[in-house]
Every structure is written in C-alpha cells, then in structure tokens.
C-alpha cells in the first residue's frame, strides 16, 4: 500500500483558543527542523489537524522521528482521496489490502465532518465495510475489538483514510513557552529535567561547567553526547561550556569545606543568570530533586537561590531516583550519563557538606574574595557550540 499523507492530531494545542494558530505554526516549524532531509514534503495546517503530503518520500524514517516531536498527540499514515463514495470505497479497500493477514478482523469508523455529504456515518460504515468484506478473503468483521480499525474522515476538501495510529510525544511544541537555560552536569538528573522542559514547550540552551585539568575531555564529550540526545526532541541546541577551574579553586581556598558546595552552586547560578540575560532567556532549569543530596534541601535552596531573582524551574523536584532513572532510560540518556567521567560537581565534593547552610554565613565567606572579576572572566571565555542530530565529531563554533 502506498500512503501519500501523514495525518497529525493535536493534543493540548486544541485547548489554546485564539492562540492555537501560533502553536500549530510552531509545531510545523519544529517538524521541518527535525526532517530536513525529506525535501519533498508539503505541509498543510487546519484548525484541528496538520497534514503532511509525502510526495513519494519513505514514510518509515519520518514516522520514527515524528514520535519524538512534542505537540503531537497521535498521527497516522493516510490515503487521501476525493469525497466521492466510489473513490472512498476503493481507497479504503486499498488501505486494508496492504495491511491485513488471514483471520484478521476489521471495522469501519466513519466521521462525517462535511455535513453536506449525502450519507450519514452509519450508511458510510455499511457501504465501505461491505465493499471491503466482499473484496477480501479471510477477513471478518468485529466491531468491538478489531485487528484493523479503518477510519474514514470525510471533509469538504477531501477524505482521509487511516488504519493505524502512532502515539505522539504529547506536550507543547518546543519554543511555544519561551527559552530557558538548562544547567547540565553530566549526571542522570539534569538531562531528564531538560527533556521534561522541552515537553512543556521550553526552548533550551544548555550550560555546562568545565574544570580542567580536574575534569577530562571525555567528561566534556559526555555532555555533548547528552545534548545531542536531547536534540531528538527539540532540534538543534546551543551548548555553552563555562571554564570554571579558577572559581572552584578560589572557593576551595577561601570558603570553609562544609560550605564549598553551597558557594559553588551560588557561583554557578550567578554565571548562568548572566548568560541567561545575554541570551534573552526567561528562566534557569536544574535537575534538582528535593532532599536527594545536601545541596538540594530546602535550606540549601534558600541559600543558593539568593543570588538571583530569575525563576528556577525544577521539573524533578518531587520525583524519586527510580522515577528519574526510568525516564532517562526511555529517552536514551541513561547509558551516557553513567559513563565514569566526573564533572566539576563531584570532584570537589566535601566529606560533610552542610545540609542546612546559613545564608548570612556563606555570604560572609564569599565577601573576602572578588568573585565578580572571576565570573566575568569565565563568561568572556565560554566555548559555545551548536549541537544537532547530524553532527558526530565536528561542531561549529558560534563565536
């Protein structure tokens, strides 16, 4: 069977009222970004559907990629025909012949969006079902639990026939909720936080803090690979690698050991917030889960958050580790995250970090050092690269 269209159904986009067109346009743009190699595709959007005309393109590769695009509730390979009964019957038969096996069952589910069509849905179901039954062997009707559900959607401009639905990723189209800066460490949690933010329509830029020679080039490559995995859900992502060695060394020298973790996180947020402002993003995103480690207690968050008024999104805040690991495996980041290359968050971890740090104390410890100069120097020397699915070992610098 030769499918000529893909019919895309919206989920949450359908609730957007007057703003729906903006969401549909963003979804269409995101699909084009993810499918650049399919140059013959033609897109047509309506209020409640998006249609992709294949023009002979291989649908299998397209189906695999569409399943990762946020904003799609479900989609189906479809045959488009004229809204004429004889044409509908022949197209439905063609669709079923390409799918069914002996002893399969089927039913016809017609939807008459075009109320001017002369037959109602019951008559359509009977006419199409009878035509299929007469012209096939070994196929029987089962209206309750069929192997094949032949869906016929009669619209004024054309009729679309589908037989199988693919589940979409749900959520909102990436970019429809503004831009956020994800602090990506290289562990299990932060890539999952990035994935969940993408699902809510947030466009991501990623920040990673790199401390050579304490952290290796392999740790850096690990973060690039994690970023590339996330591009499957949101297209190209800009990754900003911040040189953090001088700041971490100064913290180790000047701040009492049990407060070094708190101070380190505060410096990270300061840098991330300055970069966020430069990139015109609206929020910072972290992989924190409440109580998971010393820096993720409520007391620690109060002391760390004090350096910025920018909203901090924490998608994992109420999840436990097993839930986070399950998502990481599902999205393909888990095996990369567990590579044994340490990041700057783990190499200087104190033996007994403060779980209830006092804001006034950490502020006083930091007051003896001019961190602002070190922060500005780190920002001036950021390495920024654009990561995409197509890139393997070569990356193009943005600056």
Keywords:
399 residues, alpha/beta, VC0802-like, Rossmann fold, 2 domains, eight-stranded mixed sheet, 15 strands, thiamine biosynthesis, nucleotide-binding
Structural write-up:
Its EC number is 2.8.1.4. This is Probable tRNA sulfurtransferase. The protein is of the alpha/beta class and 399 residues long. The chain folds into two domains: 5-167, VC0802-like (2-Layer Sandwich); 179-387, HUPs (Rossmann fold, 3-Layer(aba) Sandwich), CATH 3.40.50. It is 38% helix and 21% strand. The protein contains 14 helices and 15 strands. It has helices at 20-34, 59-66, 85-97, 121-134, 189-199, 217-234, 245-254, 260-278, 298-305, 321-331, 334-337, 344-347, 359-366, 371-380; strands spanning 5-10, 42-45, 49-53, 72-81, 105-112, 140-141, 148-154, 159-167, 179-183, 203-210, 237-243, 283-285, 312-313, 383-387, 396-397. An eight-stranded mixed β-sheet has the order 2-3-1-4-8-7-5-6. Helix 4 links the parallel strand 5 (105-112) and strand 6 (140-141). Helix 5 (189-199) crosses helix 10 and helix 7 runs antiparallel to helix 8. The protein starts with a strand and ends with a strand.
């Amino acid at each position: 069977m030769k499918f000529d269209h893909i019919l895309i159904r919206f989920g949450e986009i359908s609730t957007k009222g007057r703003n729906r067109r903006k969401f549909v346009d963003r979804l269409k743009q995101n699909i084009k970004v993810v499918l650049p190699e399919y140059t013959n595709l033609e897109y047509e959007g309506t209020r409640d559907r998006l249609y992709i005309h294949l023009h002979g393109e291989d649908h299998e590769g397209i189906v695999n990629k569409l399943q990762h695009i946020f904003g799609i509730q479900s989609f189906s390979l479809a045959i488009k025909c004229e809204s004429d009964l004889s044409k509908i019957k022949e197209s439905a038969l063609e669709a079923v012949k390409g799918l069914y096996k002996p002893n399969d069952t089927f039913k016809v589910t017609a939807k008459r969006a075009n109320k001017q069509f002369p037959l109602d849905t019951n008559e359509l179901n009977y006419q199409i079902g009878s035509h299929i039954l007469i012209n096939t062997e070994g196929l029987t009707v089962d209206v309750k639990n069929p192997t094949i559900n032949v869906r016929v959607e009669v619209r004024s401009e054309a009729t679309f026939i589908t037989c199988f639905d693919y589940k979409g990723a749900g959520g909102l189209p990436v970019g429809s909720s503004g831009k956020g800066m994800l602090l990506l460490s290289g562990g299990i949690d932060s890539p999952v936080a990035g994935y969940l933010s993408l699902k809510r329509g947030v466009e991501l830029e990623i920040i990673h803090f790199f401390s050579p020679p304490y952290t290796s080039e392999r740790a850096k490559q690990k973060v690039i690979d994690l970023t590339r995995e996330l591009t499957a859900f949101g297209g190209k992502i800009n990754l900003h690698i911040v040189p953090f060695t001088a700041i971490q060394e100064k913290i180790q020298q000047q701040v009492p050991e049990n407060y070094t973790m708190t101070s380190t996180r505060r410096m990270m947020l300061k840098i991330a917030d300055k970069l966020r402002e430069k990139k015109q993003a609206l929020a910072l995103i972290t992989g924190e889960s409440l109580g998971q480690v010393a820096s993720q207690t409520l007391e620690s968050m109060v002391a760390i958050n004090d350096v910025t008024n920018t909203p901090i999104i924490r998608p994992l805040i109420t999840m436990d580790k097993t839930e986070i690991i399950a998502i990481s495996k599902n999205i393909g980041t888990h095996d990369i995250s567990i590579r044994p290359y340490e990041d700057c968050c783990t190499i200087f971890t104190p033996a007994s970090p403060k779980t209830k740090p006092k804001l006034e104390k950490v502020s006083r410890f930091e007051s003896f050092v001019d961190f602002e100069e070190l922060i500005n120097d780190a920002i001036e020397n950021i390495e920024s690269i654009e990561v995409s699915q197509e890139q393997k070992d070569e990356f193009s610098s943005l600056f």
